[in-house]
C-alpha cells in the first residue's frame, strides 16, 4: 500500500501554466494565510485609526481649521495613505517569499509566470476592501460624512482599491530585488514618510513653493484629493498641479503608469530568477 | 541499445560575481538511475541543482532534463520534475495539508483528487497528526518530509533532492532514504546531492564527486570505495609490540602504516575492500601482537577527497571580500 501511495499512478498530462487557473489558487493561498493569522490584518488597521484619533484630536485642536472640519479632511487622506501602503506590503510579501524559499518552490512548478505576483496583489486589494471599513466607521464616529452621492462614493472606493493594486505591484518588484525579509521590513517602515509629503494629512496650499510642487506631484495627493472630491468632503484645490486639480483623472493616470511600468518589470524579474 | 539520459549537462558554468560556483560541470544520469552528487559545502552542488531545475540559468554550457533544454524549454522541464531540498521550501504560514492542497491545485488535480492525494502523502510521511498545524511549527525533519511530499504529488520523471537529510535526526533520515529507494525501485530517476559518503553509498547507483565546480571523479559506489578503501587502526598493549604490528599491517595492506608511540596506536590505509577486521585481528594475533583495540572504518568524506583529489583541504575557497 505504501508503494502505491508514494508514486502517483495516474500520470497526468503535462501541466501548462495558465493564469486563469494559477492566479485564483495563489489568491486563495494569501487568503488562507490571513485566515490563519487574522491578527496581522487587525494590526495593520490599528495604525490609521490611531493616526485619525491622534491627528484629528491632538494636532487638529492646534490647527487653524476647526477640529470637525479637519477630521473630515483627514479621513479621506488616511484612506489614501492606507491605499498607498500596498507599496510596503507588496514589498514585504515578495521579500518574505524569496527569503523563505517558497518562491523558488513556485518557480520550479509549471505555473504561469504572472500568477505568483498577481495572487499577492489581488489578495492585497481584497483585504484592503475589507480593511478600510473599520477606519471609515471610526471616521464616521469622529464626524466625517459621505456628502456626495452613492455612485461617487463607490467611485472613491474603487479608486482607492485600484491605487492599492498599482502600488502593490511596485512594492512586489522592490521585494523581488531586496529578497530579504528583514531589509524589506525596515525599508517598508520608512515608507510612512510618503503620505507626509503629500496632501494626505495636511493641505498643500500653505507649503513653500518647491515643497508644494513635490507634494502635489506625489501620486498620493491625487488620490487623497480624488477621495475628498468623490466623498464630497472638499473640492480639488484651485491652482494646484494637474493631477491634483483633476484628481480622478490624475489618480487613474498615476495608477495606469504604475501598472504599465511595474507589471512587466515584476513578471520579467520573477521569470528570470532572483540570482 | 542506446542509453537515454534523464539528465545530461555539458560544460555548465555559473559564477556569482567573482565566485565561480560551477566551472564546466558534465553530468549524465541514465533514465531510472539514482545519481548521487557528492561534495563538500561550496563545491557547487546546490548551484547545479538550481540550474537543472530552471531556478537560474547558466553562464555557459547547456543541460537537458527529461529531454528538454533547461533554458529554452524551461516550462517543459518544470512539468517533468519534482524538487525538494535546500533552496525550495513550503509555506510556513500554511498548514501541511493546505500546502499540499495548494500545490496539488497548481498541478491541476481536479475535484477531490488533490485532497485525496494530499491526505495520502501526509499519511505516508507520518504527518497526519500535524497536518492542520502551521508548517512553521514543524521540526526540521517534518518540514523536510513535507517538502519531499510536495515534490511527489504527481509522478515526476526526474526527482531532484538537494541535501535532503542534512541536519536531520536518524529517524527522519531513514524515512527519506526509504522513500527514495521506493521511488527508484519504481523507475523514477533521482538526482541527489549530499555531503555524506554514507548517504551516496546507501542510495546511489552512480556517484559523481564534485570539487570546486567540476566533476572530480565518477563511478559506482563500489568503485569509489575500492579507490578510497578504509582506514584500519590498531591499539596494542605495549609500545614494543608496535613494530611487529606494523609488519603485519604492511603485509596485509601494502601500504605504509603510521605509528603513534604515545598512544601505542598504529593506523593504515586499507584500500582492498575484501580485507576484513576479523582477518586483521587474526593475523595480528597469529604474529603474537597483543591487540587491545582494533577498528576498520570507512573513510570520512575528507579522507575520500584527499585520496581522490590529492588535496587535503576540502573546504571551498574563501569567497573574496566584496
TrEMBL record, chain A:
<dbReference type="InterPro" id="IPR000412">
    <property type="entry name" value="ABC_2_transport"/>
</dbReference>
<feature type="transmembrane region" description="Helical">
    <location>
        <begin position="115"/>
        <end position="142"/>
    </location>
</feature>
<keyword id="KW-0812">Transmembrane</keyword>
<dbReference type="InterPro" id="IPR051784">
    <property type="entry name" value="Nod_factor_ABC_transporter"/>
</dbReference>
<dbReference type="Pfam" id="PF01061">
    <property type="entry name" value="ABC2_membrane"/>
</dbReference>
<keyword id="KW-0813">Transport</keyword>
<dbReference type="GO" id="GO:0043190">
    <property type="term" value="C:ATP-binding cassette (ABC) transporter complex"/>
</dbReference>
<feature type="transmembrane region" description="Helical">
    <location>
        <begin position="39"/>
        <end position="60"/>
    </location>
</feature>
<dbReference type="GO" id="GO:0046677">
    <property type="term" value="P:response to antibiotic"/>
</dbReference>
<protein>
    <recommendedName>
        <fullName>Transport permease protein</fullName>
    </recommendedName>
</protein>
<keyword id="KW-1133">Transmembrane helix</keyword>
<feature type="transmembrane region" description="Helical">
    <location>
        <begin position="72"/>
        <end position="94"/>
    </location>
</feature>
<comment type="similarity">
    <text>Belongs to the ABC-2 integral membrane protein family.</text>
</comment>
<feature type="transmembrane region" description="Helical">
    <location>
        <begin position="252"/>
        <end position="271"/>
    </location>
</feature>
<feature type="transmembrane region" description="Helical">
    <location>
        <begin position="154"/>
        <end position="176"/>
    </location>
</feature>
<dbReference type="InterPro" id="IPR013525">
    <property type="entry name" value="ABC2_TM"/>
</dbReference>
<dbReference type="InterPro" id="IPR047817">
    <property type="entry name" value="ABC2_TM_bact-type"/>
</dbReference>
<feature type="domain" description="ABC transmembrane type-2">
    <location>
        <begin position="39"/>
        <end position="273"/>
    </location>
</feature>
<keyword id="KW-0472">Membrane</keyword>
<keyword id="KW-0046">Antibiotic resistance</keyword>
<dbReference type="GO" id="GO:0140359">
    <property type="term" value="F:ABC-type transporter activity"/>
</dbReference>
<keyword id="KW-1003">Cell membrane</keyword>
TrEMBL record, chain B:
<protein>
    <recommendedName>
        <fullName>ABC-type xenobiotic transporter</fullName>
        <ecNumber>7.6.2.2</ecNumber>
    </recommendedName>
</protein>
<dbReference type="InterPro" id="IPR003593">
    <property type="entry name" value="AAA+_ATPase"/>
</dbReference>
<dbReference type="GO" id="GO:0046677">
    <property type="term" value="P:response to antibiotic"/>
</dbReference>
<keyword id="KW-1003">Cell membrane</keyword>
<keyword id="KW-0046">Antibiotic resistance</keyword>
<dbReference type="GO" id="GO:0005524">
    <property type="term" value="F:ATP binding"/>
</dbReference>
<dbReference type="GO" id="GO:0008559">
    <property type="term" value="F:ABC-type xenobiotic transporter activity"/>
</dbReference>
<dbReference type="GO" id="GO:0016887">
    <property type="term" value="F:ATP hydrolysis activity"/>
</dbReference>
<keyword id="KW-0472">Membrane</keyword>
<keyword id="KW-0067">ATP-binding</keyword>
<dbReference type="InterPro" id="IPR005894">
    <property type="entry name" value="DrrA"/>
</dbReference>
<dbReference type="InterPro" id="IPR003439">
    <property type="entry name" value="ABC_transporter-like_ATP-bd"/>
</dbReference>
<keyword id="KW-0547">Nucleotide-binding</keyword>
<comment type="similarity">
    <text>Belongs to the ABC transporter superfamily. Drug exporter-1 (DrugE1) (TC 3.A.1.105) family.</text>
</comment>
<dbReference type="InterPro" id="IPR027417">
    <property type="entry name" value="P-loop_NTPase"/>
</dbReference>
<dbReference type="InterPro" id="IPR017871">
    <property type="entry name" value="ABC_transporter-like_CS"/>
</dbReference>
<dbReference type="InterPro" id="IPR050763">
    <property type="entry name" value="ABC_transporter_ATP-binding"/>
</dbReference>
<dbReference type="GO" id="GO:1900753">
    <property type="term" value="P:doxorubicin transport"/>
</dbReference>
<keyword id="KW-1278">Translocase</keyword>
<dbReference type="GO" id="GO:0005886">
    <property type="term" value="C:plasma membrane"/>
</dbReference>
<feature type="domain" description="ABC transporter">
    <location>
        <begin position="7"/>
        <end position="237"/>
    </location>
</feature>
<dbReference type="Pfam" id="PF00005">
    <property type="entry name" value="ABC_tran"/>
</dbReference>
